Each structure stands twice: as C-alpha cells, then as structure tokens.
Amino acid sequence: MIRKLVVVGGGTAGWMAAAALSRTFGSAGYSITLIESDEIGTVGVGEATIPPIIEFNQMLGIDENDFLKAVNGTFKLGIRFINWSALGSDYLHPFGVYGVDMNGLNFNHHLMRYRKAGGNADFGLFNPQTVASRQNRFGRMQEINPQAPRVNYAFHFDAALYARYLRAYCEKLGTIRQEGRITKVEQNPETGDVTAVVLENGKVITGDLFIDCSGFRGLLIEQTLKSGYEDWSKWLPCNRAAAVPCDKAGPVTPYTTSTAREAGWQWRIPLQHRTGNGYVFSSEYMSEDEASSLLMQRLDGKAQADPRIIRFVTGKRKQQWNRNVVAMGLASGFLEPLESTSIWLVQEAITMLLRYFPRDGITQNQRDCFNREMLGAYDNVKDFLIAHYKVTAREDTPFWAYVKHMDIPDSLAFRLESFAEHNQPLVRNHELFKDASWFAVLVGQGMEPKSYNPMADVMPQDEFRWRMQRVREGTAGLAGMMPQHEAYLAKACPSPQRVTV
Ligand SMILES: Cc1cc2nc3c(=O)[nH]c(=O)nc-3n(C[C@H](O)[C@H](O)[C@H](O)COP(=O)(O)OP(=O)(O)OC[C@H]3O[C@@H](n4cnc5c(N)ncnc54)[C@H](O)[C@@H]3O)c2cc1C
Cα–Cα distances in Å, from 400 out to 10, 174, 413, 416? Predict the structure, then answer.
C-alpha cells in the first residue's frame, strides 16, 4: 500500500506537489511530509507562467485575488519577442487564438487569404490579447462582460512568495514540513527502492513513494538511482542565466518581454513591487562577467542586488519515474524559460502522477505511462523552443549564426516543412502549444507559408472582406473594454508592497 508520501525539496515544484497531494489525499489516511533545507535554499527564479496555472489554482480551491495579493502578482496576456527574427523586429505570442473559426476552418487560413490578397499584414489586430497588450490593458472578461468571449491570461509572481503561500496552504491541510539537509538515502537491497532519507541531525524519514523536487542535483532520481540525462545543448546552447531584480520604472505591462541579445536573450517580468530581469546566455559565446555587466546596463530601473549566475544544462531526465521515485521540477530536466514552461511541466507531472497513482504497490506499467507522458511533454516544448532560434534571419553574432544554421530534430524539421508548405504544423490534441501558438511564433519569426487550406477561398470575396472587418472591430472592442492593467491591479488585488510609479 502506498500511504506515506515524501516530497524532497521545498522550491516551487516541491510545494506545488505537496499542495496537490494534500488537497487530494490529505483527508484519506495518507501522510505527506516535505523536507527542505534553508541552508541549501531554492533556485529562486521562475516568475512567469502560462494559462493552465489557473486550473491548478482552481483545483487547490485558491482564491485568485487573495493569491495575487500575497505573491505581488500581475497579469500576463502573452510574451513579447523583440529582435528575434531580425534586429528591430517585435511580435507577441499571445495566450489565445486569432479571430474565430469560419466555415469550420481555423482562422489562420483566412488570415493567409487576407494577407495574400493585400490585407493588413498586422495579424495582431485579430487577437484581443495582442491589442490589449499594446495598450497596456487588462481585465478579466468574465467580470467585465460575461457574455463576451473569454480572454485567456496567466500570471507573473514572486517565486519565493509563491512557495511561502503554498507552504501555508499545505500546513493547514496537515502536510508535515521537515527542515534539514538530507545526507543519506537508504534503499531496499533487493528492489533498489528508496526506503528512507536521513537528515544531517540523524532523523530518519521513511516513505512508500518519494517525489524528488530537489532541484538540478536530482538527489534521489539521479544521485541515487542514476536515471540518466539526455543533453539538448546542441539545439539549445544557452547554459547560464544572470538574474537581478530592479525597481519598478513605469506602469506594469500585461506581458513578459523577451529581447534577443548577442549570445541569448533577456527576460523582463513585471511584478507589483519590482521587475525581474535575467540574461539567458551561452557560455561558449559570452563570459559570465560580460553577461552580468550587459544585463546591469540594460535594466529599466535601479538594480536591487548584484546579478546572480545560475548554471544549467538543457535536457530531460531519461526516466522521470524510476522505482518508487517520481522527479518533478528541475530534478526532472530543464528547458530555458523562453516560453515560461517549467512551472507548467511541474503541473503536468502532478496531473500525471494523480492520473496513474498507484493503488496496491507501484507497477511497471504505471511508471511507463507516466514516463511516456512526461518525456513527450518535454519533447514537444523542446521543439517549440528550438523553432524560436532556428527560424530567424539573424546572423549578426557567432551565437545567432550557429543557431540559424544548426541541425534540428527530425520532429521539428517535419513541422517546419508542413507549416512552410500548407500552414499546418501538425499539432496533436494533447500538445501544450496549439496551432495558434505555432502560427504566432513562426510568422513572428519571419516564416511565410507558401499556401493555405483551399476551404478559406470558398467564401465570396465581399462577404469575406466584411467578415474580416467585423472580426477586427470585435477584437478592438473586446480589448477596449479592459481598463489599464495598473488600475485593474489596484482595484482587484493590490499587494501590501505594491509600488506605483
Ligand atoms: C534562470 C531561470 C529562469 C526561470 N524562469 C522561469 C519562468 O519564468 N517560468 C517558469 O515556469 N519557470 C521558470 N524557471 C524554472 C523554475 O524556476 C523552476 O521550475 C521552479 O522554480 C522549480 O524549481 P525546483 O522546485 O524544482 O527546484 P529548487 O528551487 O532548486 O528547489 C530545490 C529544493 O530542494 C531542496 N534540497 C536540495 N537538496 C537537498 C538536500 N540534500 N536536503 C534537503 N533539501 C534539499 C532545496 O532546499 C530546495 O528547497 C526558471 C529557471 C531558471 C534556472
């Protein structure tokens, strides 16, 4: 029987896992213990999310405004990419589709007909997140006008406060928090299963199922069980980040900004009380000192600390569930935060663990199902990230010349070929990034499909023009209903530390 659940690590992944397990099993005779070490600390970054986090909060029964006040949270409608396809280029990858399906056909094909017939090339005019972002607006549509279509959103938040918030949530539900450094891992000599972890002070914590959220080191999944790591550095060569928070310098934008730089890219994440910044770069093309110095020169507010360097190797753990250990978060692999996917991968791992949760002992089939799901999720995100680098006109630095000309995985090559040929990048139902996301990013990066679905040409020209005009006006109207993001935050969920500029 699996009854004693032990979460190793109290970063974002550990507390998210503990929260979901406490909510699900806490009242059903299971014990949930989380071990963390203040001395080791957490990675302390990871502040931009994507829309599925809303479902995670709902599953936990968390009130969204209460949560946002506690974590200095802001709203996010997408990611703005500057200088990615060429120096001076600028596009948004929004959290939503363009237009509405017409005659049963994805709007992206109608957009291609429109563009090829000389229509306005600015596709953003057909997407409410893009229009609202350009005007710094945000509001939850279900509050503003419940009849209006929903406009997807996500959050930016302070990672340390998020872990603290979830800790309070877990402790209320009976999760036992154990402070201390694990110095020894005990295994069953016959099966190899982990039976207990031993803390520096000698305390032994036994368990039936261990969730390894110990960060990059992978204390159980790698250091103990040697599950193996697939390295993706040849496709995603960035392996360092310099990170620093700065003072808020203007009204909060409702999007994350990613600006391509000499040897990688820089993030900007606006919170209610400060702005998070980081330069993600490849150490083959730039030194840590140079990246830190360039980052400090490019902040839009006064730095609040010295830059901190975080080192990583992009890739995935080959077995995400091995024996009685399930890895989540950085222990399971790492993909740079270009599309804010790491917290989602934690959420997905929690969902999959609950889906395949063992009843009477763990079976190999349960492990296999979990591994297939999670390895597939990692692969799909990986391809999407690589596309941002590969599809570019930039060759102005050795880094950009490398990524533009590098070999790419066959799976991505096939997708790019499909998109270039007929505007359909072969997206399967279970994938995180749907057609609209591929369309936004590939067109944003400068790709132009040669053709599109002929069903888009069936509508008579006059009707087509009229309907496109209506969609465009409807989009502008929807965005126009939203207040300024800053005003909405002040009303809906002001945090005690909120700074107005
Ligand atoms: C530069 C960078 C930027 C990022 N940006 C984003 C983003 O914008 N959006 C996003 O979704 N994700 C982002 N991420 C990823 C995100 O930060 C992580 O997915 C998330 O924080 C989860 O981290 P973690 O909990 O797995 O690990 P950690 O935060 O490293 O936590 C590890 C935990 O394990 C404990 N531990 C380790 N060893 C021991 C031991 N021996 N004994 C006891 N305890 C131990 C530590 O004390 C700690 O509590 C980013 C990551 C990086 C590196």
Answer: 37, 51, 18, 19
For residue 112 and ligand 1, the question of a CB distance below 6 A is answered with no
Is residue 20 exposed (0-12), middle (13-18) or buried (19+ Cβ within 10 Å)?
buried
Task: Please give the domain boundaries of the chain with CATH numbers for all domains.
Answer: 4-47+158-229+314-380 (3.50.50.60), 240-311 (no CATH)
Decide: 266 in ligand 1 pocket, CB within 6 A: no
C-alpha 408, offset from chain centre = 22
Secondary structure (3-state) at 383: helix
In DSSP terms, 93 is beta-bridged to 79
Ligand 1 neighbourhood includes 295 CB (under 6 angstroms): no
Q: Is 69 a catalytic residue?
A: no
Residue partners of 402: CB distance under 8 A and separation at least 6: 237, 285
Ligand 1 centroid to 330 CA: how many Å?
Answer: 6
Is the CB–ligand 1 distance for residue 335 below 6 Å?
no
The whole-model pTM stands at 0.97
**Distance between CA 372 and CA 368 in Å, rounded?**
6
DSSP state letters, 101-156: -BTTB-HHHHHHHHHHTT--S-GGGG-HHHHHHHTTB---HHHH-TTSPP---EEE
Q: Which of 76, 248, 316, 390 is catalytic?
A: 76
Amino acid symbol at 189? P
Strands of 194-199's sheet, edge to edge? 182-187, 194-199, 204-206
Q: How many Å apart are CA 168 and CA 165, to the nearest integer?
A: 5
* Site to substitute for ligand 1 among 7, 33, 42, most atoms within 8 A of C-beta: 42
Alpha-carbon Rg for the chain, nearest whole angstrom, is 23
Local mean pLDDT, 10-residue blocks, the chain (501 residues): 96 98 94 97 93 97 97 98 98 97 95 91 95 98 94 96 96 97 98 98 98 98 98 98 97 97 98 98 98 98 98 98 98 98 98 96 97 98 98 98 98 97 92 96 96 97 96 97 98 97 89
